[in-house]
Automatic annotation (TrEMBL):
A Pfam family per the record: FAD_binding_4
Domain FAD linked oxidase N-terminal: 3-117
Lineage of origin: Archaea, Thermoproteota, Thermoprotei, Sulfolobales, Sulfolobaceae
Origin: domain of life: Archaea
Protein name per Swiss-Prot or TrEMBL: FAD-binding oxidoreductase
GO molecular function ontology, one term from the record: flavin adenine dinucleotide binding
Originating species: Acidianus brierleyi
C-alpha cells in the first residue's frame, strides 16, 4: 500500500494499531527485506532546498536531492541510493561520514508517525521503522568540493598501516575507509590533492558493493579497535569508516563476537528495543 501524505500514513498506522495488525514501513523497498503488510512512503516524495537546508519527505529520492543540491554548489553527504526515509531509518554510514558525520549528525530534526500521532524526535533515526514511520526531515547541506582525490594502499604490516594513518589524517580527509580481506587496504579521500607518493590515486569517493548476509555491525571507536576486531574474529571481510564508530564484519560464526558490542545487520541497537516497549507496546511495527 502506498500513502501520499502524513495524514494517510497516520490513518493506516492507527488502523493497524486498533486492529492489532503487523505492518512494515518502506520507501522504494529496494533496501528492504521486510515482509507482511507493507506501507510504502514512495509517493511522499517532495523536497525543497533553501540555501544550505533541505526539507524532505520520507519518499524523496536521495539521488535527486544530491543532484539538485550539486547544481546549487552544495553537497548532500551520503552515497545512499534509496529514499530519505530509508537513509534515516538505517542511519546509513558512507565513507563521507568521516568528515560530515552520519545522517543523524547532519539532520536538524525529523518527524515520525506513531499510533498516537507525529513526534519530532531524532531518536527515530537508526530505528529501522521498528518504533514509528519517519515521515519528514530537515537536514544540512555543505559546500560541494570541486575536486576529489582518493589515495589507496594495501598493507601486510599493521604497524605500517597505523603509521600512514597517523600521518595522512593530519591532511583532514573527507573520507577514510579501511577494508580487510586477508590483508588491509586503506582509502583516504581529499578535496585537494595532497601530493603524497607511495599511494595509488583515483578520482571520486570509494564505494563498497556489499550484501548483508552473515554480517554484523560492531562498535569500534577507533582504527585500533577495528584492528583488534579483525585479529580476534578473522572475518571473511570487514570494513570501517573512520569516525563513524562502527565496523561491519562478515562471519560464519556469530559466537566469535562474544565480548563486542554488536548487532546483526537486520537488527537495531538495544535502546530501540527498549523504546519499542513504550512507543509500540502492541508490537505492530516489523
Amino acid at each position: 500500500m502506498e500513502v501520499a501524505n502524513e495524514e494517510e500514513l497516520f490513518k493506516e498506522i492507527r488502523n493497524a494499531y486498533i486492529g492489532r495488525k503487523k505492518i512494515s514501513i518502506v520507501g522504494s523497498g529496494s533496501h528492504s527485506d521486510k515482509k507482511g503488510e507493507v506501507i510504502s512512503t514512495i509517493k511522499m516524495n517532495s523536497f525543497d532546498i533553501k540555501g544550505d537546508i533541505i526539507e524532505a519527505y520520507a519518499g524523496a529520492s536521495v539521488l535527486k536531492i544530491r543532484e539538485e543540491a550539486s547544481s546549487y554548489g552544495y553537497l548532500f553527504p551520503t552515497l545512499y541510493d534509496g529514499t530519505i526515509g530509508g537513509l534515516l531509518g538505517i542511519n546509513y554510514v558512507s565513507p563521507l561520514s568521516t568528515f560530515y558525520g552520519t545522517p543523524r549528525d547532519f539532520t536538524l530534526w525529523c518527524r515520525a508517525i506513531t499510533p498516537y500521532g507525529g513526534l519530532n524526535w531524532k531518536i527515530f533515526i537508526g530505528s529501522k521503522g521498528l518504533i514509528g514511520a519517519i515521515s519528514k526531515a530537515v537536514m544540512k547541506l555543505f559546500p560541494r568540493p570541486y575536486k576529489i582525490v582518493t589515495l589507496e594502499k594495501s598493507y601486510d604490516s599493521v604497524n605500517e598501516l597505523l603509521d600512514d594513518y597517523i600521518k595522512l589524517k593530519e591532511n583532514k580527509p573527507i573520507a577514510t575507509l579501511v577494508e580487510y580481506e586477508k590483508t588491509y587496504k586503506i582509502h583516504f579521500t581529499y578535496s585537494v590533492d595532497p601530493d603524497i607518493t607511495g599511494f595509488n590515486k583515483d578520482d571520486g569517493v570509494p564505494f563498497i558493493e556489499e550484501s548483508d548476509k552473515n554480517s554484523y555491525i560492531v562498535e569500534t571507536p577507533s582504527l585500533s579497535e577495528f584492528i583488534k576486531l579483525v585479529e580476534k574474529t578473522n572475518p571473511i571481510y570487514a570494513y570501517t569508516v573512520i569516525n563513524s564508530g562502527f565496523s561491519k564484519v562478515y562471519l560464519a560464526d556469530e559466537d566469535i563476537l562474544a565480548g563486542f558490542n554488536y548487532y546483526p545487520y537486520n537488527g537495531v541497537k538495544g535502546i530501540y528495543l527498549k523504546l519499542k516497549k513504550l512507543l509500540d507496546y502492541r508490537n505492530i511495527f516489523e
